[in-house]
Amino acid sequence: MTLEMGSVVKARYKTGTYVGSIKEERGKFYLVEILAVLKHPQQGDLHHPKETEDVFFHERRALAQNEKANIPKTAVSAYTNTVPEYSDSLRTAVQQLKHDLKEQPSSRYQELALANVETLEKDYFK
């Protein structure tokens, strides 16, 4: 399936997954405008997942509604489901991330990640 300008797509960006619309083709990338969040980004250091020692533990926000991101074409595919409303999709993605973290064995990573997600949640939904 060929993706064209305006196509609704599923796009993986860093550790998050989004629904977006293709705005431009840029060589090996698409410029994608974010419409919804399917999976909230993981917390912490992208290069050292789930580690807390000797790394900078990042608070990772989801891309904002209508934010545009350059996403490799290999991380973009057609999206055929109904596009959820952004704030509802963000709330669902945050709840899923919190649930997944709470299911993990207790660790320093889990503690820091949950604290980040709770801070983000307060900021997102104030």
UniProtKB/TrEMBL annotation:
<dbReference type="InterPro" id="IPR038080">
    <property type="entry name" value="KapB_sf"/>
</dbReference>
<dbReference type="GO" id="GO:0016301">
    <property type="term" value="F:kinase activity"/>
</dbReference>
<keyword id="KW-0418">Kinase</keyword>
<dbReference type="Pfam" id="PF08810">
    <property type="entry name" value="KapB"/>
</dbReference>
<keyword id="KW-0808">Transferase</keyword>
<dbReference type="InterPro" id="IPR014916">
    <property type="entry name" value="KapB"/>
</dbReference>
<protein>
    <submittedName>
        <fullName>Kinase</fullName>
    </submittedName>
</protein>
